[in-house]
Input
Amino acid sequence: MKNLFILSLLLLVAGTISAQSPKFDNVLYGAAYYHEYMPSDRLADDMKLMKESGMSVVRVGESTWSLFEPREGEFEFAWMDRIIDGLHANGIKVILGTPTYSMPAWLWHKHPEVLVNYEKGNKAYYGIRQNMNITSPTFLFYSERVIRKMMEHYAKHPAIIGYQVDNETTSYGVNNYNYHISFVNYLKKKFGTTENLNKIWGLNYWGMTMNDWDEFPTRDGVTNTAYKLEWERFKRKSVADYLTWQSEIVAEYRRPNQFIMHCFMPSVQDIDQIESARKMDVMAVNVYHGSQDNLTGDEIAFAGDFFRSVKMKNYLITETNAQTIGWDSKSQMPPYDGQLRQNVYAHMGSGANMVEYWHWHSIHYGQETYWKGVLSHDLQPNRAYAEYSKTAHELQKFGKKLVNLKITNKVAILFSHDANAALNVMPFKNGKADMWGGSSNIYRNELVGQFHKVLFRNNVGVDFIFPENAKFENYDLVVIPALYIASDDVLKKISAYVENGGHVIMQFKSGFCDENSMVRPMLAPGPLRKACGFYYQEFSNIKELALKDNPFKVEDKANKALDWAEYLIPETAKALAYYDHQYFGKYPAITINNFGKGTLLYQGCAVSDEIQEKLILQELERAGIKTVDQNLQWPLVTKRGVNDAGKIVHYYYNYASQKSSLIYPHKAGTELTTGKAASSGASLEIGPWDVLIVEEN
Output
């Protein structure tokens, strides 16, 4: 047991397996499939329906460790062999998952120490998935054994095109004793001595200085913000180490033409996506979103832009809405006619090379009874199946013109995991509930989310960049949501980008704390002062304030500053808006500063979507990158890219229940769904919840 685990650690350190970028000759379209969940044996019926529908790919295996290893050390594969062989016989490709996110009952019963312990004495129980300590040596031993047994058995199967390691991994709030010791060892390596840590973290506050690492406290009662920030970083590192460890094991067995990936969740932020995917070949993501009148395209575009940006390559959708979603029956909203098909092309317009549903069939028992698949509980062809089949056969016809879409953008959003974590630790407002009922991640959901939504709904293509490796020079406009945590080096790079001709939209709280969550002992915004052209010493929470004289000419109800107000004192900056208030009125709410060859627009407060739209469109024009695409606005949305033939492809989506029309402004081409010619300047009609796809000649 010990030698097997040590071997894996050595392989992890060696890091000799390099990732490869898979090339697809057509878009993959399919679903997860769990024949083991069926109330009866209907494999032949499912294979027939899948083949007739035009399905090209199925994902299997990620949930069923207890069937692969029903008793400790006893492995059974015949049940899955039959499924994969059946898919292969029907020309359907397979993605096989490692089954480690849901442990078998015998494992926790024999080794209850593998269950995760949470903060303040709370602990996980058996009866739900993702209840394990992913850093437990015992858990890792058993996980490695089942992964190796599966890979030995399946790596040569011709149906398998790729492997998914684990499933929707997070740190699961781990706070076990071994994890605490690992955290302390990590701190020793990073900071060296307790004296150094005392100084950097400010542990003199409340008299919490330490003389020895043995005095280092557990996370449970900690109030120090630097500790909390570093804890979040370590959680991200732990997930990355775990997924890299699994990727390295799988890479020992996979064939050169098989890829490795993981199904990330866009709403989960205790993950460093770049580090977690370093030994993976392609990014994959599970995207769930609103339906019926709540279908906006926002979530699809956000997830696509984010995960495409991690590797700057095309990505895969491993799970998305088929019919309805939910862990109960309180929010059952099956899609309107056309929405299922439209969503497929929405994913592809952001760069997806595969779309898979969770899942093929609806489950007849358990927590996810109402998370319905393509087939309903009656397991018969239905409205969703018909629309699925229509889309699949369209992709068979012209999917080769849409796969491997190359997307280049001139606008980027800087996304900081550290800022997200720190603003959750020290929030400036109460968060709004998201679609899952949570209200955390104000930074991700509300600040970054607003910028992305406004850009998406005004048809501005956008990438995400990250402080660790940001190439500001690749973009004409960089949008920077509240960069609350940042090193001097990152802030100097931003200033240099502006000085050399770049354009920035920056939000309040940027530059306030350094990389250790220490407030800079200088006039805010610290190293950004010259680029911003102002300083400030005070700030205030606000609910909402009108802007004086409605400077952006929006409706009165939208002429609002919200949540936070910094008392900006301009030096070289020009005020674009002031607060309409007896006391705050002498301070600008929004400024712009010419610095070197570029400009920096600063928002000292949160603003309404309508004002944000005006500011973004203004800065697009200033940067010289406004295009004819901005003549359209949501619910008409357009995306574009270049296909393998070197031709530009334009997608047009109508997110409304009424038909609409648009003037096609680009070079003449062919509308692929109808095969009709589309001449420049022609009026194109687009139905409710429909899509048009024009390939330029």
The longest strand covers residues 539-546.
